[in-house]
Amino acid sequence: MSQSPKQFHLNAFLMGVGHHEAAWRHPRTDERRVLDVAHFQELAQIAERGKLDSVFFADGLAAGPRVEHNIQAVFEPITLLSAMAVVTERVGLIATASTGYNEPFTLARKFASLDHISHGRAGWNIVTSGGADEAANFGYDETPDHAGRYDRAAEFVDVAVELWDSWDDDAVELDVAGGRFADPAKVRTIDHDGARFKVRGPLNSPRSPQGRPVLVQAGSSESGKNFAARYAEAVFTAQRTLAEGQAFYRDLKARVAGAGRDPHSLKVLPGIVPFIGDTEAEAKALEQEFTDLISPAYSLRQLSGMVGVDLTEHALDAPLPPLPPLDRIQGNKSRYELVKNLAENEHLTVRQLIGKLGGGRGHRTVAGTPEQIADDLQLWFDREAADGFNVMPPYLPGGLEDFTTRVVPILQERGLFRTEYTATTLRGHYGLDRPAARIGAARARAATA
Amino acid sequence: MSQSPKQFHLNAFLMGVGHHEAAWRHPRTDERRVLDVAHFQELAQIAERGKLDSVFFADGLAAGPRVEHNIQAVFEPITLLSAMAVVTERVGLIATASTGYNEPFTLARKFASLDHISHGRAGWNIVTSGGADEAANFGYDETPDHAGRYDRAAEFVDVAVELWDSWDDDAVELDVAGGRFADPAKVRTIDHDGARFKVRGPLNSPRSPQGRPVLVQAGSSESGKNFAARYAEAVFTAQRTLAEGQAFYRDLKARVAGAGRDPHSLKVLPGIVPFIGDTEAEAKALEQEFTDLISPAYSLRQLSGMVGVDLTEHALDAPLPPLPPLDRIQGNKSRYELVKNLAENEHLTVRQLIGKLGGGRGHRTVAGTPEQIADDLQLWFDREAADGFNVMPPYLPGGLEDFTTRVVPILQERGLFRTEYTATTLRGHYGLDRPAARIGAARARAATA
Ligand SMILES: Cc1cc2nc3c(=O)[nH]c(=O)nc-3n(C[C@H](O)[C@H](O)[C@H](O)COP(=O)(O)O)c2cc1C
Ligand SMILES: Cc1cc2nc3c(=O)[nH]c(=O)nc-3n(C[C@H](O)[C@H](O)[C@H](O)COP(=O)(O)O)c2cc1C
Predict the structure, then answer these.
(1) Which of A251, B308, B342, B403 lies 20 to 30 Å (CA to CA) from residue B369?
(2) Where in the numbering of this chain does the Luciferase-like domain appear (chains A, B) (predicted)?
(3) Rg of chain A on CA atoms, in Å
């Protein structure tokens, strides 16, 4: 077995009974399991048997237009991952959480808890919550503007990092004889006083096994990429063609370098929705079965949200109407661009567009044999469009089971993927350094003043 | 075996390796387990073997003065209880969470998650967060005032209840053939627009097994008792004498009736710290071993916080200095009164006071044989000072193991406590109704307008 020096990373993006929007209607799924914690525990175990780096949950803070057709975020991700942590030992656990509608102290503490509970396997997908329906659940009449959301996110993460670093690694002494639980000189206030947050600290949790969770990011707008360049250690992204993937990869790595960081310290993980069959024809037929189950009324509502135009009365077999300019989109700018380009470049009708988006809401779908899928992933990896992949099984658990038992072994054969875990933490799997606790920024300023 | 028609309720209040402030220094504990999720999973299993109604975690949103001496709230309670839910089947799971520094949407959703994950065993201990150190972690220069905190708590719970009720029980249809996940007519916005919160809803989680978590409350000030009378289904309280316990019980039940509710719909659960021995002398000697491990410097800091006066330089063998009047206390008013009365009535020096408070921060300690402890609990129950107890083992897991294997069987013998679970949910254990989903208050207003 050949060993490539550079290996890639695989994250399992989990959602209900699968990413395909009609997954719950297909006989390969049991739709009742969307509400069953044991289902998610099994998924984590499947991912761990496949030696995957991590599992991941998206999240949103509104019921949204999914209520009627599908609801995917029944469980709050950190709470759910805690239940999955205790039935696994190695696989990383990445939760999405919003900087828009949380407080840094509370959220930093939750991730510290998850990192303690999982013995160092927590990751945080940092999102700014762009939905108008989310804003309405938190007192806002409209979505806070895009740039302001990223400003808040930056200060939020700064505070969270200071809180995670407010306990030195060796602060907890447990000195029974001397009666000293922790050394107070090694636990510091952070005294953060910024534009949006004022937080004294220290955190009410000792420093966690990873020091801090792995920081993940998934916005691909200009502000999103600059934010990622500064903070992210992994980036989830939707890229449809190799050329687009390469351009995004180059762009982001250059920004990381520009921010004074080692480009290897950020992993680019494009999404991929794999339909696996014994033959290519079988895989494509399976994909078609799912497409045929799509409910157009629901898809039109979802598409309307993506492009900022009400399409619910629009003819299915006509092309998209003219769309508003990018600067009018306050929600997810990068998804808007992806959808617009896809429709224009491939001259799609709305019905065709809906079919293409059904698999993974814009993420790339690949239907083929395990070999073909492995070839595709390797191509993106070799050509520097990806450091690994965000695997989005169209149906669950079957689609994840198939990927880990049929595609992963081929990647292992080729020396592209680990055959055993070599680390115990998510940082370790991703080859990331464990950050040293540092004196809070506010204290450092005071010390040099 | 006689069966009493009225039985009582037992909640295990869990904290680190025990409630006694020096527990972690005593040979009966392994102090390293404060950071070990498996320790807490075992505690839940011990409680379940003892057929207890529930386990419970307190919580605070600041490291507080405990850093040096002890830290008890390493884990965020909901996250931790999720990990405990999946290794148990019956025991209730009560988490403390603050109305002061959370948003109703986010918190309602977390409790819905825990209730789904545990199949109907979640409870919420509603606290307003009175600590100045907590306020400083959320942008406040001082603690928001006492009355305002309870006003916020009331509106917070109103919103949370509306969110839990925003999905009808039968909204989720999972109609695979028809392609309808949920019936949109059974999922409603709440359109709450109040003094402090504006929340559209619906919640992004289907109605949970219990409809809503059991609502628990633990403040015993005037505002606290009025809040409890309106909202709480169980109340944790610190009462030191039978007479005080009876007075509190009568007072609270009268307020519940005054609020138009059935007095049985609220369970009064005073705290009790049991030291168990083969003989009374052995139990008292054990208690003394713990008292001897108390670190006075730490206790003085904690006592200072309770009474609103800096006692860190105060002579240990003198009585308390004059204390500020009750209306100057913005934090925990009832604990202030308890400590003040205890010191005055028993003419205690500061050192003696610290010893009395060491077991459970003011809660009543009983040291004796299993029979004596059972007698004591039965007395409080028979004389209408309690509907059950908040059991606070001084050391863990041993103190809980001893209580469940030595005291519980006596209570069962006497027909005072269940020998098997007769329900699967926490509401069931407490004999509480499952609330019917109701139309959100805002909608009801609109409908009658
Ligand atoms: C794979 C992937 C997963 C995402 N998951 C979430 C999510 O769970 N919650 C969310 O609010 N946004 C999510 N997003 C959206 C982005 O995080 C970001 O909020 C959005 O793209 C808007 O930012 P942008 O305008 O910078 O692109 C996801 C995006 C991608 C590519
Ligand atoms: C058994 C018990 C447990 C409590 N747990 C907490 C807690 O976990 N967090 C908290 O902030 N307050 C806790 N408290 C305090 C009360 O909930 C309340 O916030 C405090 O008593 C102030 O309210 P009051 O002035 O109405 O008494 C607890 C009180 C009791 C009796």
Answers:
(1) B342
(2) 31-377
(3) 22
Handedness of CA A158, A160, A161, A166 (dihedral sign): positive
Low-confidence ranges of chain A (pLDDT < 70): 1-5, 65-66, 69-73, 438-449
Taking the model in full, what pTM does it have? Answer: 0.93
Contact A138 B103 (CB under 8 A): yes
For chain B, the average pLDDT equals 92
Contact A113 B79 (CB under 8 A): yes
B449 — pLDDT class (breaks 50, 70, 90): very low
What's the pLDDT at B65? 65
Domain A9-274+365-448 in CATH 3.20.20.30: yes
DSSP letters, A188-255, are ----EE-SS-EE----SSPPPTTSSPEEEE---SHHHHHHHHHH-SEEEE---SHHHHHHHHHHHHHH
Decide if A289 touches B, using CB distance below 8 A. no
Using a CB-CB cut-off of 8 Å, the residues of chain A touching B176 are 24-25, 31
Q: Chain B residues with CB inside 8 Å of A301's CB?
A: none
Domain boundaries, given as residue ranges, for chain A: 9-274+365-448, 295-357
- B323 sits in the region (left: phi over 0; alpha: psi -120 to 50; else beta) called beta
| Chain A interface mutation, best of B98, B117, B203, B395, highest count of A Cβ atoms under 10 Å | B117
- Please name every residue paired with B368 in a beta bridge, in sequence order, or none if there are none: B276
Q: Cα B43 to chain center, whole Å? A: 16
pLDDT tens digit string along B190-200?
999 999 999 99
Quote the ligand 2 centre to B417 CA distance (angstroms).
27
Chain segment A50-77, per-residue pLDDT in tens: 999 999 999 999 997 667 766 666 899 9
Q: Does residue B388 have a pLDDT over 70? A: yes
Return residues 12-51 of A near B (CB < 8 Å).
22, 24-25, 31-32, 35, 37, 41
